[in-house]
Amino acid sequence: MTTILGIETSCDETAAAVVDDGRDVRSSIVSSQVDLHARYGGVVPEIAGRAHEALITPVVAEALVEAGAADSDIDVVAATCGPGLVGSLLVGVAAAKALALVWDVPYIGINHHEAHLYAALLDEHDAEVQFPLVTLLVSGGHTMLISFEGHGRYRLLGATRDDAAGEAFDKVARYLGLGYPGGPIIDRLASEGDPTAVPLTRAMLDDGYDFSFSGIKTAVINWVRAHPDVATADVAASFQACVTDVLTHKARKAAREISAAGICLAGGVAANSALRERTLDICMEDGINAYLPSRAMCTDNAAMIAATAWYRLASDGPSDLDGGADPNLRIDFLN
Ligand code: KG4
Ligand code: ZN
């Protein structure tokens, strides 16, 4: 058995987790800084870096205690080394390397996006996951449609040409005066609204696998300006339905094209109720598997870092202790 301590500090969550053999989550601690950034309507990098510095030691300690793990039980230390805010990434990377040195165990740097792909599989207790899978990686910073062909083998099918899906949720919520982060607030409000109330064009629906969310956001804003009396819940529901339709339509098309064994959702927006429901319906209709990570595994966490590390270690071995953080790190796609 390999016990991995994972550390995640790429954005505004300080997280640590202990995971056995890439699957068995013994602890997963996430300390969110959302309250620190909410008044600014977005993440302030300087504030995030300082908060990670203050939180990293207690969060790691809590992960070890909750897992019932002694220092000597940890076989590997993994940390997100990119992409993300450089000042935040460095805190996690430095902490992981220091622990690896002190405990005399390997260190491995993990790509945050690749880890989101594995988060979808973490709650799967079946011994074998069937590939290929189509993964919709939808977060605050990225929107990618990926063919997940096997461990470590990814092909990029499409991406957003402008705003990320989560960014569109956050911007629409900000315009509507709903607060930050916007996704969960719109999700809640949408359950009381009419998804057909505001007519919105499904952008680029039959136009390959790329996405565009900036136009949808602008269309929502223009509609609200022209119809100031429209119920906010109706706007939220219509916007959410539009984004969900576009995302799931393309995921379904891709799954059929590559004869996928299933569709995975990953990233913060994968917590969205309408997106989850629609994905489940599609997979049921098409007779394929739906991999929907628990909401805690959709948003940033360290269990997904430790799980990915287990697979990466088997294929690539540990990282060099000289390796730093790369704020623009990309997944090494096959295409
Ligand atoms: O993956 P994540 O935690 O952070 C990164 O961007 O890496 O994603 C955060 C994004 C935010 O834009 C937030 O508004 C969105 O995920 N989000 C949601 C929901 N929960 C979080 N969007 C729609 N519905 C939700 N329930
Ligand atoms: Zn993320």
Name the structural class.
alpha/beta
Radius of gyration: 20 Å
Q: Uncertain regions: pLDDT < 50 for 5+ in a row?
A: none
Largest sheet: 5 strands, mixed
- The backbone outline, from C-alpha atoms, is globular
| Fraction of residues in H or I helices | 40-55%
Distance between the termini: 34 Å
Counting DSSP H or I runs of 4 or more residues, the number of helices is 11
CATH architecture annotation of the largest domain: 2-Layer Sandwich
The pLDDT mean sits at 94
Record field, number of beta strands: 10
Order of helices and strands: EEEHHEHEHEEEHHHHEHEHH
* CATH topology label of the largest domain: Nucleotidyltransferase, domain 5
CATH classification, class level of the largest domain: Alpha Beta
In spatial order, strands of the major sheet run 3-2-1-4-5
Summed up, the domain count is 2
> What is the CATH homologous superfamily assignment of the largest domain?
ATPase, nucleotide binding domain
Bound ligands? 5'-O-[(R)-(carboxyoxy)(hydroxy)phosphoryl]adenosine, zinc ion
β content, as a range? 15-25%
